[in-house]
Specification:
Length: 107
């Protein structure tokens, strides 16, 4: 009984770890897809600084309304996903990683 529970706990932990790892890889893919790696010459400090600035803007530190920024950036992201989807379809490829709806479901 206790061994079964220990196995289940280990399995649950491993599944959660895999899900977190996949999520982090997908987020890294978005950084690459946005071109930040090339634009910053793969300078991690520059990328972090840019992301911190975006986070500050979403917290209201800039001149723009955070809700407006979020909506504008979401539209731009959806357009980029649509463009990638069209290019993949033209090349005969299937769904691209990270190409999901707001609910996290594949498009």
């Amino acid at each position: 009984m206790e061994a079964d529970r220990a196995r289940s706990d280990t399995r649950d932990w491993a599944l959660a770890r895999r899900a977190r790892t996949r999520h982090l890889i997908e987020l890294g893919g978005l950084v690459a897809k946005a071109g930040l790696v090339e634009l910053t010459d793969d300078d991690r400090a520059t990328m972090l600084g840019a992301l911190l600035e975006v986070a500050g803007q979403l917290q209201g530190a800039g001149d723009d309304d955070p809700a407006d920024l979020r909506a504008r950036w979401r539209r731009a992201g959806l357009r980029a996903f649509a463009t990638d989807r069209e290019a993949a379809a033209a090349a005969g490829m299937t769904r691209l990683a990270g190409d999901e709806t707001a609910e996290g479901n594949p498009v």
